[in-house]
Structure formats: C-alpha cells, structure tokens
Specification:
Elements: E1 3-11, E2 15-24, E3 27-37, H1 40-44, H2 53-67, E4 72-80, E5 91-93, H3 96-104, H4 115-126, E6 130-133, H5 143-146, H6 161-175, E7 183-189, E8 193-199, E9 202-206, H7 208-212, H8 225-232, H9 239-246, H10 251-256, H11 261-269, H12 273-296, E10 303-308, H13 314-324, E11 330-334, H14 338-350, E12 358-360, E13 363-365
Parallel strand pairs: 1-4, 4-6, 7-10, 10-11
Antiparallel strand pairs: 1-2, 2-3, 5-6, 7-8, 8-9, 12-13
Helix pairs in contact: 2-4, 11-12, 12-13
C-alpha cells in the first residue's frame, strides 16, 4: 500500500535535523526523526554558509535513502525559513527566486537560510512542492509597537515564530478554542530566547532576540545602550569581536564558560554561588519579559506557554511557573518540535487548509495580492 510522506528539514550550525511524516486522513505520524551531525572541522572548510548546500543536500539524500521504504511516496518538502525580509506568518512556497535570496542576499547570515534551498534541492527533481513555514523574520507588529524614541531606529521583529505558533495551535486544540481567538504569551527558551504575545492569530509583540530579550545561554540580550556605545568606540574590540560577544559568546557562556544549562545546574548543586546567581538572573529576566508581554494583552490571557530546550529543566520550568502563574495558567511544551511544525504547515498547504504565499520582489505576498 502506497504511503504518502512529507520531509521536514531544519538546518543548524553543525547539524541538519530531518524527519519523515506519513500523511493519512489529514493526520501526521512521525516515521523517523534524526539529527545529522556535521563535523566542525568539515564545516569550517566552507567559506560561506551558502557553500554548504551541496554537502548538506547529499546528507539529506542519504537520510532519505536510508529511511524511505519501497512503498513510500514523497509528496512535499518543508524547510526552516531563514533570515528573510519581514514577512507575514504562514506557509511560503519555495521558488528559484526565494532560493536565490536565501543563498545570496539574506538579511543576516545564519544556517537557517539553507532551509529553503535544501527543501528545493530534494523537491525540484521530483516535481513536488517545497515550502518554508513561519520563518524567524515573521513581523506582524502593529504600528504602536514599532515606535521608539529614536526615529532612525524603529522596532522590528525577529522571533521564533515557527515554534511559537505551533505551540499556540497545540494549546488551542487542547482548550477547544479557535487558533485565531487565542490570547497567549509564549516564551521560547533555547540558545536564543523569544518572549512573544500572540493575539488574533498574529504575533503582535516580541522581545526580539537582541533588542529587549533576556540574555540566553549564548546571547547577551538587551544591554544598556550608552555603555554599549562606549564599548563600540573604545578601540578594545573589532566589530566582529563585539558581535561574537553579543551573539554566540554572550549570556550564560560569558559568565560561566558553558552554554549547557544542565552543567550550570550541576554547578549549582556543587555549591557554586556564582552559577546560582547567573541562573537566578536568567529566570528573573525571563519572568520580567513574560509580565511585560502579558501587559500588551491587558493581562487577559488564555495561557502562558514555556517551550524550547530549557523548558525541559524542571528547575527552570517550576520556578518560572511559580513566578508567572498568577497571570494565567502555565503550560509546558518542552523542546521545539520544529520538524513537526514544518510538516504541519506543508500538510495545511497540500490539503487546502492554507493558501501558500509566493515570493515576489524579495518578500512574501498572498496570491490575491499578485493582481494588484
């Protein structure tokens, strides 16, 4: 019996996570999910992230060969969306123009930019559709949320939209409430942190990964601007060195020399009071951001969701739940489940539950807008 299958691809810095989902009666079942590990020395041989495409595509093809059964029929591929221009939330059909933009003109360099090209490299030869879903550049902030005290620096959104929206859909299903009617604050707690308010189906507020966000295992988060400006002009660091201090070598790593919160908790158990302070400060900042995000919704919420890798820590999840539980009920969806969210987006597009947007003039637009 023929089995219809969707491939999900989520590229990371030194990994490519792949998963296969069977589609039956509008339901998805995970057949296999695997993290393809890439040797750091091998990845260092590539001058640019875009140069990794052929190598990673071969790895994904090998994954398919090892895991597709004889009666499996691949019907779509879904890749993680990269650092694109601001786009609405939803599913975007992968085209040659989108692949070109992701490889050659992304807003920022990041491994997630390979999501669309990888999906396309598998789908195009088979003549099947490829999609990206809710990329990090989803920006649905209303005008009032964009205003700052500096006219040259309006606020914008870079957010873990894929997991945030997927978790909200899951809670909506559990509550028996339409997704578009949900009012939630979602804290995605991973290597980077996003705290976002979702109302009426849109992410109307987000902490932004470096702007107002709590510090994270590897990112500095929001910083006092005047000392930061002084540091920029001090001559002590190059631009590249400062960027690493903010993004990759900041946060918990800057204080404790590790990005692994399990190691931090072990340090606390061993009596390390500095580790306890940094751990408590991290939770303090996350809780403060959740409270601020709840204020955007007038503290009228269906719930607060804790998700991402750090939500797997009972210490972190319980402490945060105790701190913010008076605002709204707290639900924990540990991990990111991004491959499932990608496959669900592709399934909605295939089954007519959502019309995919198209990439035109370096942005995503709905099909209806093409006639304008």
């Amino acid at each position: 019996m023929m089995r219809e299958v969707i491939l999900a691809i989520n590229p990371g810095t030194t990994t490519t996570r792949c998963a296969l989902y069977s589609v039956r009666d509008a339901r998805l079942e995970c057949l296999v999910e695997e993290t393809l590990e890439h040797d750091e020395a091998r990845m260092a041989e590539f001058a640019e992230i875009s140069d990794q495409l052929v190598y990673r595509s071969d790895c994904v093809a090998a994954f398919l060969q090892a895991n597709m059964c004889r009666n499996d029929h691949l019907i779509a591929c879904a890749g993680r969306g990269g650092m694109l221009t601001p786009v609405p939330s939803g599913v975007i059909a992968v085209s040659d123009d989108l692949v070109d933009f992701a490889l050659n003109r992304p807003v920022y360099k990041h491994s997630s930019n390979l999501g669309a090209p990888l999906a396309n490299s598998i789908a195009a030869p088979l003549g099947i559709p490829a999609y990206i879903v809710d990329p990090v550049s989803v920006d649905e902030l209303p005008p009032v949320a964009r205003v700052t005290g500096c006219t040259e620096l309006p606020r914008f959104s870079f957010v873990h939209a894929l997991n945030i929206r997927a978790c909200t859909r899951k809670l909506a299903a559990e509550l028996g409430k339409p997704f578009d009617d949900m009012r939630v604050v979602v804290a995605h707690l991973g290597a980077g942190i996003s705290v976002a308010t979702l109302m009426d189906g849109k992410i109307v507020e987000s902490s932004n990964r470096q702007e107002q966000s709590p510090f994270s295992p590897e990112r500095a988060g929001g910083l006092p601007p005047l000392p930061l400006i002084e540091l920029c002009f001090s001559g002590t660091y190059t631009k590249e060195e400062l960027l690493k201090k903010l993004y990759g070598q900041g946060g918990v790593y800057a204080h404790l020399g590790t990005k692994d919160m399990r190691k931090v908790e072990a340090m606390i158990e061993a009596g390390d009071e500095n580790a306890r302070l940094i751990h408590d400060a991290l939770i303090y900042q996350i809780a403060k951001a959740i409270g601020a995000s709840a204020a955007v919704a007038d503290f009228d919420l269906d719930g607060i969701i804790l998700t991402g890798g750090m939500a797997q820590s009972k210490r972190i999840s319980k402490t945060l739940s105790d701190k913010v539980g008076r605002i709204a009920p707290v639900t924990i969806y540990a991990g990111s489940n991004e491959c499932l969210a990608l496959a669900e987006g592709a399934a909605r597009a295939l089954q007519g539950g959502e019309d995919p947007m198209i990439w035109q003039n370096d942005t995503a637009i709905s099909v209806e807008d093409t006639s304008c």
